Amino acid sequence: PAAVALALAGRRRRVPAAALAAALLAPPAAEWARGRAGGLGVGRWESLRLADDLAYQAGLWSGVVQSRSPAALLPRL
Which of 55, 50, 2 is closest to 29 using CA atoms? Predict the structure, then answer.
């Protein structure tokens, strides 16, 4: 949601699409490069990691909406 908000911000403050794509794709690519992909190709690994992240975020936001409390969005330090 933060990336979407930044992408839709005003023209002067808009984050370039390439920067958003890099922020989205770089962590799974680095994980793949470290050899944690279990033999999957980089494209398949990226797709599965993004699907996993999307499912996690959907569940998180669903819980926030159902509980009507943003407490789940706050980090625990």
Answer: 50
CA distances from 33 to 19, 36, 50, 54, 73 (A): 20, 8, 16, 21, 30
Write the DSSP string, 17-66.
Answer: HHHHHHHHHHHHHHHHHTT-STT--HHHHHHHHHHHHHHHHHHHHHHHHH
First to last CA, the chain: 22
Could you tell me the two tokens for 66?
């159902």
Model-wide pTM > 0.85: no
Predicted local distance difference test score (pLDDT) of residue 59? 93
